[in-house]
Batch of 2 targets.
Target 1
Amino acid sequence: MIDETRSPDPAEPLAHHRGSGGVKPLRGIELTGAQILIECWKKEGVEVVFGYPGATTIDIHHYLKESGPRFILTRHEQAAVHAAEGYARVTGKPGVALVTSGPGATNAVTGLAAANLDSIPVIVFSGQVARMMIGNDAFQEVDIVGVTRPITKHNYLVRDTESLARTVKEAFYVASSGRPGAVLVDLPKDVVSGRAEFKYPGRLKLRAYQPHLEPHPKQVAKAVELLKKAQRPVLYAGGGVIMSGASEPLLALAERLQIPVTNTLMGLGGFPGTHPLFLGMLGMHGLYQANMAVQECDLLIAVGARFDDWVTGKLDQFARKAKIIQIDLDPTSIHKRITTEVPLVADARLALASILESLGEAPDYEKKSRPAWLKTIAAWRAEGDAVMDYRKTDPAGCTGATCPVWNPKTKGCRTEPIKPQMVIDTLYQQTKDRDAIIATEVGQHQLWSAQYYLYDKPRRFLTSGGLAVMGFGLPAAMGAQIARPGALVVDIAGDGSILMNIQELVTIVEEKLPIKVIILNNGCLGMVRQSQQLFYGKCYADTMLGRSPDFVKLAEAFGAKGFRAERVEEVAPVIEKGLAAEGPVVMEFIVCQQALVYPMVPAGQDNYHMLPFAQAEAD
Amino acid sequence: MENGKLRRTLSVLVDNEPGVLARVTGLISGRGFNIESLSVAETMDPAVSLITLITSGSPPIIEQIIKQLRKLINVIKVVDLTEGDYVEKQLVLVKVRALEAHRAEIRSLCEIFKGKILDVSPRTYTMEFTGNEKKIRDILTLLDDFGIEEQVSTGLTAMPRTKLDKRDRRAN
Ligand SMILES: Cc1ncc(C[n+]2csc(CCOP(=O)(O)OP(=O)(O)O)c2C)c(N)n1
Ligand SMILES: [Mg+2]
């Protein structure tokens, strides 16, 4: 359902279109579907397309080479979609991928699910068999629209060449507006090779889809009332803050009312990690002071966060002393997991801005109660810091022969083992002034990257939160590096995850992307092993990786540089050397297998129950 | 309904496009809820279809289903008819064993329930009934005494009642 409001110049002349023989006005000229698609991409400001070709997309690649945006040939379609997501996370613009029908499209499925669960605008264009072949079990035919229906925000099968431009326009609009998400556009081969006049719609208005952005003044007033009265408030800020560019008003609100702030995994960087009011991440592996503050607060202001189970722990105990203000663009997030006193369906930036406006510059609020609240938090922070200080805490015991640091002769560590947290900490110390972008894979290393690396700006921490898909980091780093060629981009990986998209080292070398990869090699699938150690009687079923490849040689085989650190004293120099080296670099750190991600709220428990802390029961 | 479950009749206006029904039903089944009745038809505007569906769940679940439906790009409007007053109709075809001795009684039941006999065989009557759920349930219970051999029914379709307003009434 589309009302097309045509722009003043719906079809400006396409001066350098070689296919139609030089400089001709485009009006009235028929283009092939492939040309139309590429012209649409240009209209949408697409700078780069990630993908992999095949029979059904040859036409598109043909014109893409001639006159399209930059194309990055990844070595797997999953990586193409993750790379598009990395690009979108860094720029805020939709990331675009192009894959062929059948296997190309099914390989893209994981990427679509990842982007959609984290509300990142990604558009995948997939080839499809010709229309008359659809439904015949044709060669490389998959009903990808059917397959991806539940894991995309929306998807399209383009029905004819005439409707292609409009569909592409709609796809970009849907992917990037409202709560963003993943969109798939399926392109039958004959639609792509067919011809039609190119008309790009100016503005779209969809009858059935109109995201609501403005906050309701009544709800804003209610929120302001609660904010003024609160004695122990906490701001709980998620990915929505980053998406809507709400960091500035968030910081202003926190500072004006002296409200401490915690971030979700997706929200990290939305509030400066080095700010005194920052509590760190909350949730299952959240910091002690963050979880305690949320459990004990009397007002929780959720901004662009969805109360997911990883964050809340046992739901009926979550922040049960608090009234809740919930700012979310997506009405389905309201009252989904938790009932809130003041729901505010609006864009986070607009909502926070209007709250700030209502508060005024020097608001009257419970100023007297604040020092006591901040002092309580400082005490929790001190308790928490003691556990987070990896230098002082010893992992209990040694895991033995499966550990990469194990010495069979002495039956102990070969050397003083490198603690994985130390690698992240050292990386942070060496890069904190360089405005780096950190991508991660999934596992213990991911959570240590969330705890020990502090992100002062949004769009600097790229991690798969909702799908938590191993193999995300390396391709996401590619997308990030392409978006910000001058930036330092690091992928922090585990020895398990890195192998899930290791083939992308070729793409990285080929495209001359100076990405630095840090592998924390603990010889195991650490995150799962941790649960086995704590909750499955130390039975390490299928989590020991045994002999991993020689990552240094592997890097070299791909044409990158490789370095390895096996001793504590090698950590800082290897990082220094690796960061200084030109081009792509892999740095492998042989780390202690026994290290655990703490704090940890065991599944099914409330957030007071954080291991290894003695349970801090509510009064 | 058992354990706080509510039965809801939802009226869902959607773009009349291929795949839209799959989006609506997929959304509900994908969350583990059952659709008890479903009917779809074009409206006066050929670009728009109306889906009437019955589902049940606890109030928060129903709230979620409605919001999630609204979030679908092709869904124009969702109305929970159960919230207000509405009219509903369903059509059922039923084949009943009709022994010589019972024929008169079956015909009179058919008449009372404003049904139609569509087909007659030496052994059976095939009849059509329309009505709300209760009426349909009642006639089927009554006919079951004679032996129902086959029965099919459409989904329920529904429409809100227009509120009566004194001012609208014709003065006589
Ligand atoms: C594709 C995929 N498969 C399985 C998992 C389950 N999983 C989560 S973390 C993890 C271990 C990851 O191991 P590694 O990359 O070595 O990281 P570590 O936890 O050891 O730091 C696994 C298997 C997942 N998240 N993604
Ligand atoms: Mg590992």
Target 2
Amino acid sequence: MKKIYSIPLVRGLVWLVVGLVIGIAAVAGIRAALGLDATGRYLFTEHAWVFGGFVGTLAFIATHGVMGDWFKWWRGQDTPEHHEDPASWLKYLGPSLDHKVIGIQYTITAIILLVVGGTFALIFRTELSFEGQQFLNPDQYNTLMSLHGMLMIVSILLGIAGLMNYLVPLLIGAADMAFPRLNAFSFWIAVPAAVWLLLSMPLGGVETGWTGYPPLSANPAKIGQQMFFLGVFVAGWSSVLGALNLIATVARMRAKGMTAFRLPIFVWASIATSLIALTATQLIGLSFQMVMFQRLFGMGFFDPAKGGNPVLFQHLFWFYSHPAVYVFILPGLGVVSELLPPLIRKPLFGYKWVAMSSFGIALVGFLVWAHHMFTSGMNEYLRVPFMYSTLLVAVPTGVKFFSWVATIWKGKIPTPMPSAFLFTIGAIVVFLMGGLTGPPNATVSTDLHLHDTYWIVGHFHDTLFGGFVFPFFAALYYWFPKATGRRLDERLGRLHFWLMTPAFLVLSSGMMRIGLLGMRRRIFDYDPALGFENMHVTLTVAAFLIAFSIAIFIYNMIVSVKEGDPAPGNIWNSRSPEWQVPSPMPAHNYETPFEVVGEPYDYGLPGSKYVEFMKK
Amino acid sequence: MRHFVIVGILVVLAAVGAYAGLDASGLMPVAASAQAGSATTAGSIDWMWNLQVIAMSFLFALIVVPLVYALIVFRRKQGDTSDAEHITGNTPLEITWTLIPLVLVLAFAYLGAYSLREVRRADPQAMIVKVHAQQFAWSFEYPDYGGVISDKLYLPAGTQILLQMDSKDVIHSFWVPEFRVKQDVVPGRVTELRITPTLPGEYKVRCAELCGTSHYSMENGVVVTSEAEFIAWAQEQQNALASAQTPEGKGELLVKANGCLGCHSITATALPTAPTWFGLFGSSVTLEDGSTVTADEAFLKESIHDPLAKIVKGFAPIMPAYSNLTDEDIAAIIAYIESLK
Ligand SMILES: [Cu+2]
Ligand SMILES: [Cu+2]
């Protein structure tokens, strides 16, 4: 018992529950003392639950151990710069300061949330297969659909944080991130966030979709809505602090000679992403916090009866949530550009243009948010400039596609194609589908038809699968040997790809097709007169195939950690520094520092090198 | 050079094939308004859409064909361990594929603005219909026809309609797929939408903004008829309104106009949102706290005036208060409920 309690994650979760109870008791007690109603529809009042969640978050973070060094500094004690991690897998449940351990913690948590969110999708997808009610009621459907959206978003944020944490210090030759303790804090704060998101289910659920628009999200009947807001608010901290850390790391800790245009392209993408996350996340936190206060304290920010404006919420919300899309996809596009050169033995075509296009996308991405609001009732004339700015995103995105094709052209295409390569190509094709189905939504007149339909659902699943899911898998197949010293099984990898890709293309194109014909998004059941049943059955089958392929992947990971083919060295024959040292990566990265002496992707240039290790 | 010629030909073939295939598969529902138009009426939504399908088909082919071609043709030969040719870029090419898309984007931006202007084109003679949205039903009011209220949207073909829309509770969105255009309905203000129906027939207005539990079923009928038929219908409604002498007749009209049937059913099978009214009058109702009451006039009156005062067991407290209904109205509604057996 004591042994289990000594695991930091377990200890933190125990105290999270204790904190929740204390917070609830405090509010209920005060209310009772004031003669107010202390109990509510869900045992206690909304105020009690929210305050309990707040105390629970603090209790988790204070007892888990991730603030241990800070507490000691506060008391005037010194602590060593590095901490040695326990040798067993238990280090993954504790407050490690090693960026590689934290990167893996992020990645595993992302996969767990991907599985939970994906399972929710399978459940409501099955409900949708046939006309009429199957086994859910509309409220359960709405809750699962809303949480599917938000859990996937959190999963993606953790997934990119995992890649960036693990890779960026290795790629730039740093021993760790700039602020290792802040790094651990950024990860662990995401754990209570996930707990609150899931707790929204027994407390009445969420009925608004992930966008949480008021006045619907101010409906007092659903306390779950508040826990949802609280969860997202807390997760936002993880994003902001992680981004800050990454920017500081790249700014201050690059190896000698690593000038701007000798940075690996993935690092460029990571900075672009982090700049957005650092400056925009506050807006979703703010907008959700305002709804929380509207509900808790009667502040009528978005309540027309009190002079508030519901459309204002949408502006605040999308000011983050559009750029957030680029937070999700830029690292993935960076992975595509990073993997193509070593796999086909040819330099990245137009390196500078590719690097700058990430910044172009990030910059323009800040000026397009109201394209989600063409039908919202905002000022009619504002729709035109937002249409222009949104269409403009096509230019830097196009540069990326053309550069990828030019890179592959006359490359040495590997035979047989490794899974990492298959997923890279899959990413390009799927993201292209997402990219091409975007401009019709950016054009106001056609968007008046497309908005809030299944077409949009298909479109953004294309962008997120092409921009995140496929590159994420490519990166895992490529760098798994770096982290573990063993390869993932290639046969299972190819099976994973050839199951998932066709199934996904059927799923997203099918969604778009019925969307055009009148299928609205976020509906629990559809009008039989539309004749969509066959398509919905097909979509459900496709969704299960995707889930099955991902189950194969997870099985592959679990088995390969112990039994995969050993891969101690530079298996990809890459120029990149992390492959010049043995795998798995040594605990403190590079024993001797390296110097950058050439271009990162000069494959095919005899005698050239990217990095050179300094003599001791 | 040979490669480029082959790829060029394949791109054109693939683009034409993709467009033809998409076009033939019937992407859009039937077009029933002037705003929807057709692929050949310049500025309409279907015209704009058709241009976009052409652009999508072409750009898809432009990327995917050379990609797939390269994957097949440039495969590594058995036993070859060399690297590929050292090509790092080509600045004129980069500038070209930045500038050409930029020009395309500008062209589409212009066309998009032009199309928006055509779709918004206002007719000062437009007939006004007031649209009232609430969880989970629509109702339609015709100020030009003595304030007739209907739960079906009747419209004359060939006349521009100006919809003035308001919401009682949360945000809803007015969308008839066959008309193409869509507009949110926001509480606390009036939003407008112009539609010129062209094709007589029966359609449905489908709420496009998630508005709560039964959002999925927030669909009301739309009937487009000839001008003459529309006027005949409106007259008949006006007469019915004037001559709804029996209380339950008046109650039925009120119930439809106030969207009660978005949540309540009038048959033996209840909707998931709210109790059915069938056989309600005089029955005994179990409340949330476990007590029971008889559904008499007093209880029903209270339930309508102050819905949160007593909550029926098994249902959420989501019913809005209807302060606009007079005592007389409520008596009529109760008479109507009493008649449902
Ligand atoms: Cu957007
Ligand atoms: Cu709705």
